[in-house]
Amino acid sequence: MTLPDPTSEWRKSSTSGPENCVEVCLGRPVMVRDSKVSDGPCLAVDSAAWASFLNSLSSR
C-alpha cells in the first residue's frame, strides 16, 4: 500500500461542495481522498492514468 508523505500538499477540488469533497495530492502516484476524512484511505492512481483522466475531462 502506498501512503502519501505527511508533508505532502493536498489540493481541494474547486467544484467540491459541503457534502462532496475530494482532495488530490500530485506526485507519483497521484493520491485522491475524501477531504472530510483526511486520515482515511486514499486511492493511488498512476500519474499517466491521472493525466489521461484529466485530458478526457477537458475534451468535453
What does it look like?
This protein is an alpha+beta fold. It contains one helix and four strands. Strand 3 and strand 4 form a beta hairpin. Pfam families: DUF397. It comes from Streptomyces tibetensis.
In short:
The chain is of the alpha+beta class and 60 residues long.
Oligomer category = single chain
Query: Which structural class do the helices and strands define?
Result: alpha+beta
Question: What Rg do the Cα atoms give?
Answer: 12 Å
SSE sequence, one letter per element: EEEEH
Helix/strand layout:
Blueprint: E1 11-12, E2 22-25, E3 30-34, E4 43-45, H1 47-58
Antiparallel strand pairs: 1-2, 2-3, 3-4
Features of this protein?
alpha+beta; single chain; 60 residues
